[in-house]
Fold this protein.
Amino acid sequence: MRLAWSSERTTTEIVKAYYEQALALLLRTTSHLILSDHGQRVPLLPEAQSWLTTNWIPRAISQARACHCAIVEGANPMHRLSTQSVVSAAPLVLYSSGSILLPRPKPGC
């Protein structure tokens, strides 16, 4: 699944709705892979960051068996800080490969 973001500022509720649609699609398909292209996205609000790490990411892993997520970071330094905040708090073991952050695959995934 590829998540593409616009450069417009969005509310936390819109971010939640977008990710809920993504989770619903993951649940309906056999895909366990996510590519989130943040090239144009503005930094997420702190509330959205917290919701992602404490709510959506754990559900994507447990319910949809999401096992790989690649993030293409934007050029904005504030965006990178926002992304790193989510990634560092996420319930995944991550390693960096250039501008893409990848979780280490779970066994059997």
Remarks:
- The longest helix spans residues 12-28.
- Helices lie at 12-28, 46-62, 77-89.
- The first strand starts at residue 2 and ends at 4.
- Confidence is low (pLDDT under 50) at residues 95-102.
